[in-house]
Amino acid sequence: MRRTALLVSSALLAALTPLTAAGAAEDPAPAPVPIDRFEGEVPFAKPPAHGIFTWGGDSDDPPTLRLGAREDAPEGEKVLSGTYDISGYGGFSHGYAFDEQPHNWSASKGIRFWWDGRNSGDRFLFELKDGGANGEASELWQAAFTDDFTGWKQIELPFTEFVYRTDYQPVGGIDQVLGLTEMWGYAVTLPVGKPGEFAMDGVELYGRADPALRASVTTDAAVHPVKEGGTATVRVTLSTTGAVPVEQPVTVAYETSGGTASGSDYVPVKGEFTFPAGTASGTTRAIQVRTLKDKSAEPAETVPLKLTVTGAKAPAEDPQIVVNAHGLPYLNSKLPVQKRVADLLGRMTLEEKAGQMTQAERGAMGKPGDIAAYDLGSLLSGGGSTPTPNTAEAWAKMIDSYQLRARATRFQIPLIYGVDAVHGHNNLVGATVMPHNIGIGATRDPRLARRTAEVTAAEVRATGVPWDFAPCLCVTRDERWGRSYEAFGEDPALVESMETVIQGLQGRRDGRDLDRDDKVLATAKHFVGDGGTEFGSSTTGSYTIDQGITKVTRKQLAAVHLSPYQEAVDRGVGSVMPSYSSLDLIGDGQGPVKMHARGDMINGVLKGRMDFDGFVISDWNGIDQIPGDYASDVRTSVNAGVDMVMAPYSYKEFHSALVAEANAGRISERRIDDAVSRILTQKFKLGLFEQPYADTSGARKIGSAQHRAVAREAVAESQVLLKNSGGLLPLKKSQKVYVAGSNADDIGNQSGGWTVTWQGSSGDITPGTTVLEAMRKNTSRLTYSKDASAPTSGHDVGVVVVGETPYAEGVGDVGNGHDLELSAADQAAVDKVCAAMKCAVLIVSGRPQLIGDRLAGIDALVASWLPGTEGDGVADVLYGKRPFTGQLPVTWPKSEAQLPINVGDASYDPQFPYGWGLTTLTKVPHGGTATLRALGPAASAAERAGADEAGRALVTKARLIVQQKPVTAALAKPFAEADRLLTQGRYGAAVERLTTAYREG
C-alpha cells in the first residue's frame, strides 16, 4: 500500500495545535496552516522516512513526479507536477515520518490546495490518513473533486465531506471516526484509463471547525448472525472528533424493518435513546433483537435494523440481524459431500450460482456489502494486496470480516479466499520465505520439496487463507521468460518429481486432510504450455515472451507440457488455473488460441481424458484477453470449462454478463451446475461450512525457528556448485574473507519477485538473514564492501555475491528492460576482487546469468538462485557444514544467442549442462572408465529390483566421475540426457549415457 511523511518546523507544529476556546472567540477567521508548499522542503522518499512517494497497482501505474518552478505558481515559486497512465490504480502520498508524532487538525474546517485544471471532466480522490500507529496503519478517508475548470483554482474540501473508505483499511478499522487529532498526511488517487498530467500547489488547513459537526454514530458490526431462537445484540457507539464530550444531544431512533424474515421469526423492536450533551466519546448503548424458534428447516433470514440519527453522522450502513440457516441437509456434516452438494445446488437461484463462479480482489470491492449483494463465492489478495498492518493477526481478522459478510446470504455459503503463496506465505511480512521453485528443482529432493510446502500450507492456513494459487507446473524452455524461476526446471520429469509439493499443501490425495488447520487447496498452473512460449510472440504491453504463443505438435505438447498435469490430477490437486498464453497446435488449423478459450484442452483433455474433478479458476482478468466483447469472453471461457472467473475489478460486470448469457441460453444450465458443483465440493472438503472463520492456533509457528530450519535446509540443497578450481570451497573459518557485490546484503534481492509485493523489491522488506549476515556468523575475519571500493589487500579469499534485482511475470522478460548480463557494478566488483585474490562468485538470480567471458578468472562459481529469507543455508555450504549437492534444473547457456537451449536438443553446447553440480565433502570414485563399466550393470539391477535409493546413488557416483572433466559439447549432451533418465528412474540407461559422456568428453 501507500503513504508517508511531512517535514515540518517547530513553528508549524505549534500552529497545528488546536486553538483554545478563548482564541476562537478572539479570531473568528484563523490564519490558514500550511501543510505543503512544494518549495523543496519535503524530499521524495519512501516510508518510513518522511517524503512524497508514488504507488500503483503494477510497475507502470505509479505516476512520475517533479518539483519545478513556474511563473504562474499560486504560492511560492515551485509547484508539484506529474504525468500518469494508469491501468489499475495509482497516485502519490505525502505523510509524516513514522518516528514523528501525528498532527492535530481538529481545530480546522477542512483542507485546501491549488489545482491546475485542464477541464478534462476527470474525477480525483483526495485521501486523509487518520489515527493508527503510522501512515501505513491509518484509517483512510476520502473526498472527491472534478477537473471541470481551466487554470489554477483553489479546491476546498471540508472535513465533513470525507467518507470512510470501504477498502484498504486497517483490519476492522480503528474507530471508523475521522478523529483529526492524529493525522499522518494525505494522498491523491489519479484517474484510470487514459494518460494525463496534473499540477498542484499550496496544501493547507483552513477555517474553524464547527463543533456541531463533530459527532458520529457507529455500530460494532454490519452483520449480526444468530442461531434461531437466540438474541442478537447490536452495540451503538457515539464518537467525537478530538475525543471531546459531545456538545449537543444525539438521538438514535431504531426499528426492525423489512428483510427476508417474517413476523414469526423474531420479536420486532422499535425505540429511541439519546446521548445527552456532555456524553463522553466512546459511550456505547445496546439494542437487542430476540429471534423465535420454530420446527421448520430454513435458509438464513435477515432482519434489518434501521437507525435514524439526529445530531450526528449516522453509520455508513444499517446493521442487520441474520437468523442462521438451519436444518437443511447440506448443513449436515455427516452426509457425504456429494449429497450435500446436490442438496445445496438444487436450492440455489441462477444469480446465486453466478456468485459462486465470481472471484473479486478484496481491495477492489466497491463496498463490503457487495459480498452478499452478489453472492460472491471467492475473494483473493493479489500480490501486495495485504491488510493493514501486514501481520498474521490482521490477515485472519480481515478474512473473518469478509466471511461475516457471507453470513448475510440465503445459504451462508462461505467464501474461499486465495493467495499466491508461491514460495512460502510470501505476501506476509515475517513469514518463512522459501527458495523459489527453480531452487527447489535444483535440490532434486522430492521429500524436502514436500516439507517446504507443508510449512507454506501451515503458515497460510493459520492466517485464515484456505487456498493457494500454487504450484506452478510450467516447464520452462527459455530463460528469457520472466517467470522462469517459477518453474522447477526445463524437463517435465523433474517437474513431475517435485509435485510432492501438492501433498505438502493438501495432504492425502483423496482430500480428506483439507479441513485440517495446516492444509490448503493447491492450484496447478498455468494450464498448459506457459513455459514454451516463443520469444517475441507476446502481445501484452511491452512483454516479449510471457503470455505469448506456444507452437507445438500434439506429441510435443503431451511429452513436455501436459505430463506434469496428469501427475497433478493423479495426486488429487483441487484446482487448476489456465495460462494467459495462446496454444498453436500444429496441424489443427485453428492457429493461436488463448488457453482460457480452449475447450478442447480444458473440457476435453483436463476434465475429460485426465478426469480432473476439481475446479478451474481463471487467471487475473484472463478471460479479458479472449478476442471479442465482454459477453463473448464470458460465454467462451465458461463454455470452455472455466468454472470460476478471477474478475478482480470487474466482478459486478462478470456476474451480470454470466446471468445474462445463461438466461439467453448461450451458457447451459448443465454447464453452470457443473461449475458450481465443483466449487462447492472443494468448499465442503475444506470444512468451510463447519469452520468458515480463521483457525489461528498455528499462527505462533509462522516464521518460527522450526519452519525456518526447513527453509534453510532447502536453501543449502539448492546451491549448485558449477566450478571449484583447487577446491576453493568450502571456505575455512581461519581465512580472511573479502565480501562484495549487490546481492550480498539485500534480503529483497535474495527473495526475488512475489515477496510482500507482486514485483518484489530490493532492501529490507521482511525479516530474514542475508548471505553476508550468515557468513558473519561463521567468521569475524570478514570485510564487506558492496562495490569493492574498500582495499583488497591482506585477504585470503573473495566472495562476490551478484545477480538480479526482483521482478515478476512479463515485467522481467528479457528485452523488457532486462537481460541476462550482470550489471556494470557487479561486473566491476567481480573483476576487481577476482584480480586481487582467489575468488568465489555467487549468482543470486531467478535464471542463469551470462558469465562466460569472466569464467576463466573465477575460481569457484555458485548458482544460488533466489534463496529467500534463510541466507544461513548459503553459508552452510560455503563453510562446509553441509556439502554442495544441488544440480542445475535448467541448462546454463554460453550466450543469449543459444536460447532457447534445453536437454535433448540436437545441438547442445552449453556453458554447463542440465544436471551439472559439483559436490564437496564427498570423495570422487577412482577408476574412470573401468569404474563406470562396473556401475552400469549394478544400476540396471537396482532399477529392475525397484531399489530407487540404491539406483540413484550409483548414478550419482558415475556423475561425479564425469564431472572431473571439463565441459565440452561432446560431454554435455549425453551428461544432460543422463540426468533426465535418472529423474525417470532409468538408472542403467543413465549410467550408460554418463559413460558415453566420459568417453567422448
UniProtKB/TrEMBL annotation:
Pfam families for this protein: Calx-beta, CBM_11, Glyco_hydro_3, Glyco_hydro_3_C
Domain called Calx-beta: residue spans: 204-308
Domain of life of the source: Bacteria
Uppermost EC category: hydrolase
Keywords, comma-separated and alphabetical: Calcium, Glycosidase, Hydrolase, Repeat, Signal
Residues spanning the signal sequence: 1-24
Entry-linked SMART domains: Calx_beta
SUPFAM superfamilies per UniProt: (Trans)glycosidases, Beta-D-glucan exohydrolase, C-terminal domain, CalX-like, Galactose-binding domain-like
Gene Ontology terms, MF aspect: hydrolase activity
Enzyme Commission designation: 3.2.1.21
Reaction catalyzed: Hydrolysis of terminal, non-reducing beta-D-glucosyl residues with release of beta-D-glucose
Family, per entry: Belongs to the glycosyl hydrolase 3 family.
Name of the protein in its database record: beta-glucosidase
